[in-house]
């Protein structure tokens, strides 16, 4: 197995050639290969996915596809790692571009979170650690080994409830906003949620701050979703008082509070599918998904909440060129860009992911 980047000749192929060669490679690979596509993938990639979904659905359905030898993940690194942790022994997970990371996951380096955990232990602050799916496998293992779990945007509330049955406090990373929005949805006041800043001694928090906290939030965020601001909601409502605002829970809490609906990418798709013809929507999530939904539901008026360019640059790294290259290599019996989580990390990470899948 090797780690490489897409060779020059693939970069010169035009769109039609790429499309037909991907279809041909898929046909030839048959049921040996399943392509998973996250909803933020570009149109010319998602068109080839056998299964599309949010992080939770892809983790669940990917794990169920034990018939396939190869799982080609069109998404970002933490999603492919989760698929590798959950896969059956004879399967291999491929990420067509290993540079498809997540800037939010990068905001929680493993050693910083472990150090924070040690500090909390030293201060005698008991917590259940909960990590958002958007994190390294090592952090998932940290949660698994310490009685915690993973959550995604579609089950964060259920996982918080599960965690509160075990301890009165949750240590949540890396998305400050998802954590705060979930806490508020459970009726936890803002004053009972504190932010751990890894750049400061003891997270910048006093013993009293930690004692009164119900949720300790990591200082991390999504660079795409934090572009959506309260002023965008106000502007859109001024322009059209009948518009409905639908956002992802990675947006800041003021935006969620002012919105009509909040939910994962899968939930956003579901809400817009069910919406009546003629209804008008401003959607706070990634550009590719919103544009696709606007085209799919031409009988409804769907647009992105902010006029800023809210594109996930790392999701965009997966291209028809590197997808084709990965598939044609599989046809030759070569596996490029396989994701391999070390066994010692996998054990704890699997415990945390399994807890999530059990809670739902
Ligand atoms: P979903 O699980 O809602 O698809 O979100 C994943 C993600 O990375 C959003 O930024
Ligand atoms: Fe990460 Fe944000 Fe991209 Fe999702 S949209 S993968 S959280 S950078």
TrEMBL record:
Q: Which cofactor does it need?
A: [4Fe-4S] cluster
Annotated pathway, please? Cofactor biosynthesis; NAD(+) biosynthesis; quinolinate from iminoaspartate: step 1/1
Gene Ontology biological process terms, A to Z: 'de novo' NAD+ biosynthetic process from L-aspartate
The main location class comes to: cytoplasm
Cytoplasm in keyword set: yes
What is this enzyme's EC? 2.5.1.72
Q: Does the keyword Iron-sulfur apply?
A: yes
Q: What NCBIfam families does the record point to? A: nadA (TIGR00550), PRK09375.2-4 (NF006883)
- Could you tell me what this protein is called? Quinolinate synthase
The species this protein was found in: Eiseniibacteriota bacterium
What is the primary gene name for this protein? Answer: nadA
């Amino acid at each position: 197995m090797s780690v490489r980047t897409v060779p020059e000749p693939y970069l010169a192929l035009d769109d039609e050639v790429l499309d037909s060669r991907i279809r041909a490679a898929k046909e030839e690979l048959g049921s040996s290969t399943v392509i998973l596509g996250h909803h933020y993938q570009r149109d010319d990639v998602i068109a080839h996915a056998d299964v599309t979904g949010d992080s939770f659905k892809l983790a669940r359905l990917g794990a169920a596809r034990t018939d396939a030898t190869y799982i080609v993940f069109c998404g970002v690194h933490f999603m492919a790692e989760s698929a590798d942790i959950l896969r059956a022994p004879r399967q291999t997970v491929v990420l067509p571009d290993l540079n498809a990371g997540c800037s939010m996951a990068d905001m929680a380096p493993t050693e910083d979170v472990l150090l924070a955990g040690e500090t909390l232990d030293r201060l005698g602050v008991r917590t259940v650690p909960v990590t958002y799916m958007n994190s390294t496998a090592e952090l998932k293992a940290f949660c698994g080994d310490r009685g915690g779990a993973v959550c995604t945007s579609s089950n964060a509330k259920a996982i918080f409830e599960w965690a509160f049955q075990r301890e009165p406090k949750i240590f949540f990373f890396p998305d400050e906003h998802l954590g705060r929005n979930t806490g508020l949805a459970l009726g936890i006041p803002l004053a009972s949620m504190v932010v751990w800043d890894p750049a400061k001694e003891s997270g910048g928090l006093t013993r009293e701050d930690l004692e009164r906290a119900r949720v300790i939030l990591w200082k991390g965020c999504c660079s795409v979703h934090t572009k959506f601001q309260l002023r965008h909601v106000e502007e859109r409502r001024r322009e059209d008082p009948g518009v409905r605002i639908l956002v992802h829970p990675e947006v800041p809490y003021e935006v969620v509070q002012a919105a009509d609906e909040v939910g994962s990418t899968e939930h956003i798709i579901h809400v817009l599918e069910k919406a009546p013809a003629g209804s008008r929507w401003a959607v706070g999530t990634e550009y590719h998904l919103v544009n696709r939904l606007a085209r799919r539901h031409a009988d409804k008026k769907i647009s992105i909440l902010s006029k800023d360019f809210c594109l996930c640059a790392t999701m965009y790294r997966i291209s028809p060129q590197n997808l084709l290259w990965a598939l044609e290599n599989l046809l030759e019996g070569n596996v490029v860009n396989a994701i391999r989580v070390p066994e010692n990390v996998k054990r704890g990470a699997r415990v945390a992911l399994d807890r999530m899948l059990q809670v739902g």
